[in-house]
Amino acid sequence: MDTYLRLLALVLSGCAAALLLRDSPFRFLSALCCVALCGILAAELLEPVLDLISRLTDMAGVSRTVFGPVLKATAIGILSQLAGSFCRDAGEGALAGAVELGGALAILYVSLPLFSAVLDLLETLMEG
Amino acid sequence: MRRAGIVLLLALLLSVGAAAAEPEGDLNRELAGAVGADTLESGLMEEQQELMGEATPTESGGFFHTVQELITRAVLQSGGAWREAASCAAMLLAVCLACGLCGTGAQNPPVRAVGIAGALGIATICTTHVDSLLRLGSETVQNLSVYAQLLLPVLAASSAAAGSVTGAPAIYSITVLFSDLLLRLVTTGLVPLLYSFLAMALADCALGGAALKRFRELMAWVISTGLKTVLYVYTAFLAITQVISGATDAMTARAAKLTLSSAVPVVGGIIADAAETVLVSASMLRNSVGIFGLLAVLAVCILPFLKITAYWLVLRLTAAVSGAIAQEALVSMIDAVAQAMGLLLAMTGACALLLLISTVCSMKAVGL
């Protein structure tokens, strides 16, 4: 709760700074700094979630070859969304679309081991 | 005096004992051997015989007590299935939680791509488990069919011996026909359809779109309606057969008894009573064979049933819990896998139910 309140305060401060720096070239930089600080604070909230996920995977006893690509895909997805939002804030819609498309392709690339695993299983099922 | 002497001589000559032929063994056991009831026990696998406990085809003990013991033993042996299902659920929850970090509401390309990765992860985790369960379900249906080939002739023979001369062959032939039909339907039609159902669910999760969802629902409808139709038609056939043959058999037995007692002078009534005794013994044998058959069918299908039920319940629970944290596509994927387990349960249950209905109808067939 404490961390979330700090995050809230940081975001509201960032919005206030963006309003004040409306016509200044430092507006984008202040938003970037605010997001970076929010990311550091959010990491505190993310840690217990990652611990829970790690506990669930240990309980399941399944190797990381299945779970690793999923985590990488999630990380790329979060970063792509953030980058896209920044680009839109800067008035660059095309760049936002490009970074999101790039993110989607990167996610599909890291998911290739999962594609192969599913195809192998389907081949086994069809032969069986 | 001469007359008194002749009477005395006749009395001496007629005082020799008149002994009836001793039966060579227990009538019940002889009848059981004649109908082949001893093959019923040997037709079961070792683990199924363990579940049956001390039940035998020739002695009908406490049915409900034996069923209770059977279920208790099966539940105790199915602990491993629950653990496997729980570990599968833990993995699915971990994937849903990881993908949920990216957000659940937005539909921009990165979020959709994360959804696809999550769906592939779920498919990879579930496919191994689902494949082994589908094979288990097919195997159980085959085992039920094989055991039916042992049970049905014995039931028909004991039922005919108990006086159900018209009904027993009719029930036997109808059950064999529908059992074979259901086996072919399940192994060559419904199980491959279930694989397609799962593939469609994965495609729906990855690509979205109402068309794929509707196609998937159509497949589920085809499977459930196919099973229901076979069971309804079979039950209807059986009911009509029982009504017709039941009255015929009862009248035939009565007519035979009256004919015996009136056609044969002096000892006709005794012969008719002796014949009735044999019919009563045969009827008792039919009931004990029927009860053993019911228990055997339960023993064949209860462990696979519990294993599939464990996965079905756990996946349903996982879908409910992950609904709060995961994307809609991933939740619907888990739901689809749970639905596939439910359909597999229905297939196995339909085959077992067909045999159970047939056994009960054979036991209830009117003979005397």
Question: How would you characterize the overall build of this protein?
Answer:
The complex is a heterodimer of chains A (128) and B (368). Chain A is mainly alpha-helical and 128 residues long. Chain A folds into two domains: 1-61; 62-128. Chain A is built from five helices and no strands. The radius of gyration of chain A is 20 Å and the shape is flat. Chain B is elongated, with a radius of gyration of 30 Å. In chain B, helix 2 (27-35) packs across helix 10 (268-322), helix 6 packs antiparallel against helix 7 and helix 7 packs antiparallel against helix 10. Chain B is an all-alpha fold and 368 residues long. Chain B has one domain. Chains A and B meet through helix 2, helix 3, helix 4 and helix 5 of A and helix 6, helix 7 and helix 8 of B.
SSE arrangement:
The complex is a heterodimer of chains A (128) and B (368).
Chain A: H1 2-20, H2 27-60, H3 64-89, H4 93-110, H5 112-127
Chain B: H1 2-13, H2 27-35, H3 38-42, H4 46-52, H5 63-77, H6 79-100, H7 109-161, H8 167-207, H9 210-263, H10 268-322, H11 328-364
Helix fraction of chain B, binned, reads over 70%
Number of domains of chain A: 2
Task: Label the structural class of chain A.
Answer: mainly alpha
Largest sheet of chain B: none
Mean pLDDT of chain B: 82
As a percent range, the share of helical residues of chain A equals over 70%
- Based on the structure, what is the oligomeric state of the protein chains? heterodimer
Largest sheet entry of chain A? none
Number of domains of chain B: 1
| Low-confidence runs of chain A | none
Approximate shape of chain A: flat
Number of helices of chain B: 11
Give me the Rg of chain B, rounded: 30 Å
pLDDT < 50 stretches of chain B? none
The pair of chains with the biggest contact is:
A-B, 41 and 37 residues
